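If you are new to this repository, start here. Below is one unmodified record pulled from the training split, so you can see the exact layout before writing a loader.
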Amino acid sequence: MRDPHGKRPHTQSRRAARAGVLGGVAVYTAHDIHFTRLGYMWTAVWYGFAVFEMVYVKAVIDSVQMTTWSRTYYQARPRAPSML
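And here is the target side for that same chain:
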């Protein structure tokens, strides 16, 4: 599989980066003094929604013809209420 620029992805380095992130999360949660399952559950729920939203927006942007400004507006609009 190739990326949009025609290059092969560096799968080993990507896997190593993901393993490093997951390892860091594991070390942090293992040594967190104020660890509560409920807190990490809500963090996981938030993360799941954030990833879903990012993937959905990317799919829409890739499937619809838009100008650069239209893409920027479409991506920023869902976040606007949180800025008020």
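Two things worth knowing about this chain: The helical segments are 11-30, 37-63, 68-76. The mean pLDDT is 81.
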